[in-house]
Specification:
With about 775 residues, this protein is of the alpha+beta class. This is histidine kinase.
């Protein structure tokens, strides 16, 4: 049948449109249009089938959903009822609250604020009233306009109280239904507590609508009139499973819903299907286009690769081969052509690459060398800073220790000086009195304390740097002989033998400091040797002389060899027994050796003995120096040709002790506590003193050096005497800076505590023409 002429134009137009869409343009777009047409056909067929199946299934599913919702709402309502009933029962059984409300003045009980705070139970509004035994209200939690107790409710409560039985009911107030319940303080269904009439009751009321959490659900009572179900809707009723208390009410939850879901289905299912179909068609179009683009991506990559090579030249590009179809064969052929181009360029770039590699290697080595140098510099700087910090910490610690020892020594020397002077004066006055033996024991104890203070003073002098060696020719043999004579008897008392090997060695040294080093080593050996012998000797060597002290004592463990030269460090004296020394002898040896540039070495075997060696570098001499033996002096008296002594000290005990000792020698004494008092005393006496003894540290920060200066000025200007007395500075200070200042003054420096014989020596030196007689 031939088409009519008026239909040919539209058909040709459609034909041209299809021809343009399906035979021209990019492959991906043409593939997408074909897929779209097929998708339209499939959407229509699938949509019709789904509509027929869904309309039947949805009706059954709708009824099942309504039943499930009704059961869920019923369980929620049961939970609210249970919570409400249990809470009210606990509140009714609260004996303290019931007794407080029942007593006279119960309305003023402090429990009322708590009662008024109970406005909701599990989000259910509730009004409650506590009554007495006759059902008369005592207290409530506050009446509300929409929820209140009516006279009918109270009358109902009176009947429940009269029956002595908890009760529950559903009442109607206006158009609303309420749960009304009365709880008596008794067990459920039993008699009140103790068999007596109830002390009161709790009446509470809650709206039934608040117990249902679904807007289309209601609570109805069994046997109550039920409104008819509206047309087009259905109702599902679910009995509530409640406690025996609420079971007589026969509460049923009723849920209404649309009975026919077709209208809902037509209202949203068909539009949803239409939207899904439209979305599917759009997805088919763009998905098909994406699939087409994916299938033709190899051709597009070849096109772009060829354009890149034409524009920028070949730089190693490759075409990706996907699969084994015709497009993949074309890509393989294209890659073969690129391989040929790469082979030509590879030969040209090889030498350039080698040159670049060599240059990069040199650059990396140079950079590594610079980095290593920087690291070494940084590490050296860090080590230097750490060393500086460690040195600063050590110097601060050493300074703090020195200052502490100086302060402690000064504070101790003041009372010790008083003891020395007063004990000496007491010994002179007692004479042969039986108590003089006690004075001897006191002097022995004071002498031990003086040795400790003298050792600390020696350490401070060495730390202050005020000890200067006086080098002269010294005979080691003379020193050895003197030490042997001094310690032979002490060693024999311990049952050991002490021997000094004869020697003719002479050398240049400070005789006093060298003898102090050797004496301390001998003292140390004697202190820690209980049997055997001690030998003092020397040996010549190419470098100089080695003075050695050997003993057969207890020995020193290897881990203690370095620490024995520290202050107050003793290995075998944990109880700090004075008989075993103070722990300062070897520390003084170490400092003196460093001052004289000697080296002290020690070798020891625990249980067998020790050997201390002093290495003295330098040549020996031929001339022998004879060292004077130390003399001894005692407290002496003078005849009554009186000398005048001026004592300046802020400590009353020290002033008194010095005054007593000097006066016992026949002298006159002016004792003052400061410079101004001394000037006044000389002005009054109108006589120049022959001896001035001034403490270095006076009260109020005054210095004894300043006091001596004031006295000398007074002698010159006021007394008009050009002859100045012998001035002695007496100090108990061991601080290095104070020792340095005192030594720089040029006056005689004596350190506390000074003994009676030193006082006698000062008096003899001040007035040597006075006759001196020995005192017992």
């Amino acid at each position: 049948m031939t088409p009519k002429p008026h239909l040919l134009s539209p058909l040709r137009a459609v034909q041209r449109l299809f021809t343009r869409l399906f035979t021209r343009g990019r492959l991906a777009r043409r593939f997408a249009f074909v897929s779209l047409m097929l998708g339209v056909v499939l959407a229509v067929l699938i949509g019709a089938s789904l509509y027929l199946v869904s309309s039947r299934h949805l009706a059954r599913q709708h009824y099942g959903n309504v039943q499930a919702n009704a059961a869920l709402v019923a369980r929620q309502t049961e939970g609210l009822l249970t919570t409400l009933v249990n809470t009210m029962r606990d509140l009714a059984d609260n004996r303290e609250l019931a007794r407080a409300l029942a007593e006279p003045g119960g309305k003023d009980t402090p429990l009322l604020p708590f009662l008024r705070s109970v406005g909701q139970i599990a989000s259910v509004p509730v009004v409650l009233v506590f009554t007495n035994a006759e059902g008369k209200p005592l207290a409530d939690n506050g009446q509300r306009a929409d929820l209140r107790m009516t006279p009918a409710d109270l009358a109902w409560l009176e009947r429940a109280v009269a029956a002595r039985q908890s009760a529950v009911a559903v009442v109607k107030d206006g158009a609303r239904l309420f749960l009304l319940a009365a709880d008596l303080p008794a067990a459920e269904g039993g008699a009140p507590l103790g068999g007596a009439p109830p002390s009161g009751a709790l009446l509470y009321k809650a709206p039934l609508s608040a117990l249902v959490l679904h807007p289309e659900a209601t609570l109805i009572q069994a046997g109550a009139a039920v409104p008819p179900v509206p047309a087009g809707r259905m109702a599902v009723e679910t009995p509530l499973r409640v406690s025996d208390r609420l079971a007589p009410l026969g509460l049923v939850l009723r849920l209404e819903a649309s009975s026919v879901p077709t209208a809902a289905f037509l209202s949203w299912v068909l539009p949803a299907y239409g939207l899904v179909a439209l979305a599917s068609l759009v997805g088919i179009y763009f998905g098909s286009r994406a699939v087409g683009s994916h299938m033709t991506r190899s051709l597009r990559e070849l096109e772009r690769l060829a354009g890149t090579i034409v524009s920028h030249g070949f730089i190693g590009q490759r075409a990706r081969v996907r699969g084994d179809d015709e497009v993949a064969g074309l890509a393989t052929t294209f890659n073969a052509m690129l391989d040929h181009i790469a082979a030509i360029q590879r030969e040209r770039d090889l030498r350039a690459a080698e040159e670049i590699t060599i240059q990069r290697t040199f650059a990396e080595r140079a950079g590594q060398a610079r980095a290593e140098a920087e690291d070494a510099k940084t590490e050296a700087e860090r080590a230097r800073q750490e060393a500086i910090m460690a040195l600063m910490v050590a110097e601060r610690a050493n300074a703090a220790k020195t200052h502490f020892l100086a302060a402690a020594s000064h504070d101790l020397r003041q009372p010790v000086q008083s003891l020395v002077l007063l004990t000496a004066a007491l010994a002179v006055r007692l004479g042969d009195h039986p108590a003089s033996s006690l004075v001897g024991k006191i002097e022995a104890s004071i002498n031990a304390l003086c040795r400790l203070l003298d050792a600390i003073l020696d350490m401070s002098k060495l730390d202050a740097g005020v000890v200067s060696p006086s080098v002269q020719t010294v005979s080691l043999g003379a020193i050895f002989q003197r030490l042997e004579d001094e310690y032979r008897l002490r060693a024999a008392e311990k049952g050991i033998r002490f021997r000094a090997a004869p020697t003719s060695v002479t050398l240049s040294a400070d005789p006093a400091l060298l003898e102090r080093i050797i004496r301390n080593l001998v003292e140390n050996a004697l202190r820690y040797t209980d049997q055997g012998r001690i030998v003092l000797g020397c040996r010549r060597s190419a470098e100089g002389v080695r003075v050695q002290v050997l003993d057969t004592g207890i020995g020193i463990p290897a881990e203690h060899l370095e620490r024995i030269f520290h202050e107050f460090y003793q290995i075998a004296n944990p109880a700090r027994d004075r008989g075993k020394g103070l722990g300062l002898g070897l520390a003084i040896v170490d400092r003196l050796a460093r001052l004289l540039k000697y080296r002290v070495e020690v070798a020891s075997t625990p249980g067998k003995g020790s050997c201390f060696t002093v290495r003295i570098d330098g040549p020996t001499l031929d001339r022998v120096a004879v060292l004077p033996l130390p003399g001894s002096g005692g407290l002496t008296g003078v005849d009554r040709t009186v000398g005048l002594a001026l004592v300046i000290d802020d400590d009353p005990l020290v002033r008194e002790g010095l005054t007593l000792l000097i006066e016992q020698c026949g002298w006159r004494v002016l004792a003052c506590d400061g410079a101004s008092a001394a000037v006044r005393a000389l002005t009054i006496a109108r006589r120049s003193p022959d001896l001035v003894i001034a403490d270095l540290r006076l009260a109020a920060g005054e210095s004894g050096l300043d006091a001596i200066g004031a006295v000398e000025r007074t002698i010159r200007t006021v007394l008009k005497n050009p002859r100045l007395p012998l001035c002695v500075v007496l100090t108990g200070d061991t601080a290095p800076e104070r020792i340095t200042d005192a030594k720089a003054s040029g006056h005689r420096i004596l350190h506390k505590p000074i003994a009676a014989k030193e006082i006698a020596a000062l008096l003899s030196e001040a007035l040597p023409t006075l006759p001196i007689a020995a005192r017992s």
